[in-house]
From TrEMBL:
Protein known as: Uncharacterized protein
Length: 66
């Protein structure tokens, strides 16, 4: 499952694990997760310009081998 979203023109992604099964059968279900990410922006001299917390609610499909 790989999760991606866009924030102020920047693509943020994480995850990407692969699930495999020798029987090729999976049980699928939907999962809703809340993600909280702190975004700090600095100028070229290292001074902190902004410190924001971004909250995203993402729904994805999980696959579990049977």
């Amino acid at each position: 499952m790989k999760l991606e979203f866009k924030y102020k023109g920047i693509n943020i992604s994480f995850g990407g694990k692969t699930v495999s099964s020798s029987s090729k059968k999976f049980k699928e279900y939907k999962v809703t997760k809340n993600y909280k990410i702190r975004v700090k922006t600095y100028n070229p001299r290292g001074r902190l310009l902004s410190n924001e917390v971004v909250t995203k609610k993402l729904t994805s499909t999980e696959r579990v081998p049977i």
